[in-house]
Amino acid sequence: MKYHINYGIQNTQTLTKRIITLIAVAVSCVGLAVGIPLSAHAAGCTSVTTSKGNLTAAQVGGNVTGEVNATGCDIGAYFNADNPGQVKNASIHDANQYGVFVDGNVASDTKVNVTNSEVYNIGNHSAGVFAPNGNQTGLGIYFAGFNSVGTASGNISGNDVSQYQKGGIAINGENANANVRGNDVTGLANVPFIAQNGIQFGYGATGQAQNNTVDGNWYTGANWASTGILVFESDNVNVDKNTVTNNQVGVDAESWCYFGVPSANNNKFVNNTISGADYGAIVAAYSLYSDCDAQANNNKVTNNTISGTDSADSEGIFVGTYVYTGSYSPETKNNKVIHNDVSGFETAQDTSGDATAKVHANSFQ
Asked: pLDDT tens digit string along 44-72?
């Protein structure tokens, strides 16, 4: 098999018979926050210094409701500890990089709830019209706590996130935490120019994804893949009771020890319904762009219903390791694959990369 997931770095070698999936967005150095609150019905853009650099936002802080037309701005609604607020019953659209950006770049807790809102058309624009491309930006809702001096946290619930360039909802960094519940996240379906992700917890982020519907994240190009719900180099994330449909990879917990984050341990994929996938559920550790020995240990894949596309090289459940580059020794151990109903894949399951895995009471068809 073949796939990484597109992060903006390219791997030119052809990969065979193992899966590498994804990173939703690159992380950059922490910035300092500046901003003045605007009306929710923004007529212009305000400059803000964020953890992703100097950007512009249609709304800075405040309680956001109603329409936020962010055409021409990098961000729809921006929050940090100096600019607190909430998003409720809002329609945020047409920002160039981020729909909602909750930033932990100030030495305090930034807690923002994003509820019952729609976020769409986030990414590249041409003449004011959404025109997604392969640049690794364009996130519907983004909580940033990577190497941050403060924290970014909150509830993300009841939202409709669609027409995003790179990712629907991304929670990134060891100081980021979110409960992601009851959202509809819809990708661009089959596209050749970018590997999208629906929901991501990355780089040490914590939280849970529960009762979400994630659909239509699929990359048709070479070497990379898209994922419905990704746990990348994060521990103790609970992915429960989600409906994950027509995504190239359904759910995935993995680590490369990229940016020095060593593990994807103690995560749970439980009671999810995954359908129309080339790869249903993945638990993996790889040596690729690594800074240490990656780990994916003590994860649970239990009580899921997983159905595939019956395509060549498709795989229902994969647990294992692979060394692509470098001299590091990735590790998977003590993972559990129990009470899953798996059908419609060329290979129903491969847990041979974890000699200590507990695999029982599954139905493989």
From this structure: 899 999 999 999 999 999 999 999 999 99
